[in-house]
Amino acid sequence: MIYPIVKYGDPVLEREADTVTEFDTPELQAFLNDMFEPMYAAKGVGLAAPQIGVSRKVAVIDVSNGENPDDKLVLINPRIVRVEGKQVGEEGCLSIPGFREQVRRGRVVTVLAQNAKGEEFEKTGEDLLARAFLHETDHLYGRLYITHISTLKRDLMKRKIKKLQRAGDWT
Ligand SMILES: [Zn+2]
After folding, report:
1. In angstroms, what is the span from residue 101 Cα to ligand 1's centroid?
2. What does the alpha-carbon distance between residue 45 and residue 99 come to, in Å, rounded to a whole number?
3. Is the entire prediction scored with pTM above 0.85?
4. Is 136 a catalytic residue?
5. Which of 22, 67, 91, 136 is catalytic?
6. Ligand 1 centroid vs 141 CA: distance in angstroms?
7. pLDDT digits 0-9 by tens, 87-106
8. How far apart are CA 104 and CA 86, in angstroms?
9. Rounded Cα–Cα distance for residues 23 and 116 (Å)
10. Which end of the chain has the smaller Cβ count within 10 Å, N or C?
């Protein structure tokens, strides 16, 4: 079964997820596999556990969307430790389908995280990968990319989403 992706409006997306304390278990490994599947199915480059309704500090990233096995990344309990430069580009979110906005982000970003065994590692990414580190880590702290756009644009987006909700087109 592929987990359905939770959409904007669900409170799980706007609260800090629980820190992972148990590593190297079959349950965690199975959960990680369960996270890559809906991301690939939705053609996304990253997915955070709250997006499948699980409040847990786990994110998966693959900027190649399954093309390059070396790009498969698991971030557990990630923290952003360095941000350098700037980039402005279009960003979207699988939990806010149909919308994209220009978002200003750091261009070179270093994340400190744990792997499935609980080992800490640091990884630095540029451009799209840097953006994914920031976007997915934000998710685990209950922050959506729309908190990084202007109030005007955000309010407009929220009104459009409300309309979709009322019409039953946002489930
Ligand atoms: Zn997202």
Report:
1. 12
2. 16
3. yes
4. yes
5. 136
6. 12
7. 999 999 999 999 999 999 99
8. 7
9. 6
10. N
Q: Report, in this order, helix, strand and coil percent for the chain, each rounded to 5.
A: 35, 25, 40
Q: Measure the CA–CA gap between 17 and 56, rounded to whole angstroms.
A: 5
Distance 163 CA to ligand 1 centre (A): 21
* Sequence-ordered strand ranges (E) for the chain: 46-48, 58-61, 73-84, 87-91, 101-105, 108-114, 120-126
Positive or negative torsion for Cα 70, 102, 13, 118:
positive
- Locate 30 and state its tokens: 């199975």
CA 73 to chain centre: 12
The CA distance from 20 to 98, in Å, is 31
Do the beta carbons of residue 14 and residue 50 sit within 8 Å?
A: no
Tokens of 157: 């987006």
Residue 140 CA to ligand 1 center (angstroms) comes to 10
Q: How many angstroms is it from 145 CA to the middle of ligand 1?
A: 7
**What residue ranges of the chain have pLDDT lower than 50?**
none
Neighbours of 26 (CB within 10 A): 7
